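Notes from hallway chat w/ T.B., transcribed later so I don't forget. T.B. wanted the structure written out for a chain they're using in a teaching module, and asked if we could keep both sequence and structure tokens in one place. Agreed to drop them here.
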Amino acid sequence: MISFLSKYDSVLKLHFENSTRFKGTSNLIQNDLILSVGEVMLKTIKKEISEASFVAFILDETTDISNTSQLSKIVRYVTKQGQIKERFLGFVDVSMQRTALALNEIVLSTIEDLDCGLKLVGQSYDGAAVMAGQLGGLQAKVKETYPSALFVHCMAHRLNLVMQQSLNKIR
């Protein structure tokens, strides 16, 4: 990736051509750089959220080709300038624990980490019982702690289901 970027960045290209000590191509160095960039981005997101009036969480679980269940965490908020921001916070491996209780722990720890519990007004998940169930689903558990967090079924998921069903009827 960094070699590809050097084709479009003359300073980076010059560095690769002339550097004798540090090129930054080691996988350990690249992982450290990725972690550092991630920390800076998360700090910026936390600052924006601290200034926001309202926050909502969007979670979606999917299984990848290696049979690993991953939960994507997204936070949505309105900045003080009135801009709607939607930020991807990362993936969490939930292969071993896909219960509403386990997912609730992930949500609560994320809310605590972002320090936005009092601002939480929305939550959006797919229609699976573990997520959307009114009595024991994740949305009900989050609502017990944060009563203002209204649940809205993920419209993107609904659109995907409608498209799948309609395309199944076309020969």
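Follow-up for T.B.: The domain at 52-171 is CATH 3.30.420 (Nucleotidyltransferase; domain 5). Might be a good example for the class.
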